[in-house]
Design brief:
Length: 321
């Protein structure tokens, strides 16, 4: 196993290593490494010393998002051990969206990324040198007027939750100090798909006025070497179906169908087209409400034509409304 290049960033005393004496089955390879995405689950980076260091990536104010909570500690639970360590994030300091865009440009100069037109409250110097290797050449961060928030804690589970065409998803829990934890998913985009990550981030900014029908975005994370960037999202419930099922094959009452159509109408009211509305991208919350998820193929600036809108028309036909 290759050691993590950032292990020197943390003092030895900051890492606790607890080994279980119980036998655990060897996890499948696809639970750790997705060859298509070249993205490793954090467990594959773990040993008693090397620990993946993760920083909150985006300041919320220029995206219109709620205050994002600083990560005080991260726990990665594995099949055979558990690591707990403090985050290097110490306050309302973030890397801006422009830093991520510039980072992608530095890796793929021929690819153009449209930067956000909204002013950023946090400005960082784009990288001009190779990937950071130590605390002396980390990205240049500046503190902005981000609202003070309560430190939070992230726990990742060792198993792969879902692997799609562009992103890999893991599950876990997220909690604020002295508050119950919430189930989350961590949706990770590898470097080559940063434009899609930025697009989905902009979609969540547009969805900020909505509630219940879309999952909550808690924060955005990336490792120091920016080999991937991930959205920490609310795990809103249970999927209605899998990728092979149609709307006729899932359990939906007539009221459910009307509520689902209404949810898509609300989505369009803020200028967002979902782009991939299938049973696996709709989940049922614990109290029965329906929630639209997975905005990786969504588009912005939609001007809805009402009943004649192609996406609304297609859903209405599929639901027999």
């Amino acid at each position: 196993m290759r050691p993590c290049p950032h292990s020197s960033l943390l003092p030895a005393s900051s890492v606790t290593f607890e080994r279980s004496h119980q036998h655990h089955p060897r996890p499948r390879r696809d639970q750790h490494l997705c060859q298509r995405h070249r993205h490793r689950h954090p467990e594959r980076l773990l040993s008693p010393n090397p620990v993946p260091v993760v920083l909150p990536l985006v300041a919320p104010s220029h995206l219109g998002l709620p205050p994002l909570s600083p990560i005080a500690s991260i726990v990665v639970a594995t099949h055979s051990s558990k690591f707990s360590f403090p985050s290097t994030f110490q306050g309302p300091t973030s890397i801006s969206r422009e830093y991520l865009a510039n980072r992608y440009r530095s890796l793929s100069p021929s690819t153009s990324i449209a930067s956000s037109s909204a002013p950023s409250s946090v400005v960082s110097t784009p990288p001009s040198s190779p990937e950071p290797k130590s605390e002396h050449n980390l990205p240049n961060l500046e503190e902005g007027p981000t609202p003070r928030t309560t430190p939070s804690h992230l726990i990742l589970e060792p198993t792969l939750f879902h692997s799609g065409h562009f992103a890999t998803v893991y599950s876990g829990t997220f909690s604020l100090d002295n508050q119950p934890s919430s189930r989350i998913i961590l949706k990770c985009y590898p470097t080559q798909y940063f434009p899609r990550h930025l697009q989905e981030l902009d979609v969540y900014a547009a969805l900020a006025p909505l509630a219940v029908i879309v999952p909550r975005l808690y924060t955005v994370l990336a490792p120091l070497d920016l080999t991937w960037a991930g959205l920490v999202l609310e795990n809103a419930g249970t999927e209605l179906g899998n990728s092979s099922q149609t709307w006729d094959e899932v359990d939906l009452t007539h009221d459910d169908r009307r509520r689902l159509y209404g949810a898509l109408t609300e989505l369009h009211s803020v200028g967002v087209v979902h782009g991939d509305l299938t049973p696996r991208n709709v989940v049922r919350r614990s109290r029965g409400a329906l929630c639209l998820v997975d905005f990786g193929q969504s588009t912005l600036h939609h001007v809805c034509s009402g009943a004649r809108c192609p996406e609304l028309f297609a859903l209405r036909e599929a639901l027999a409304l």
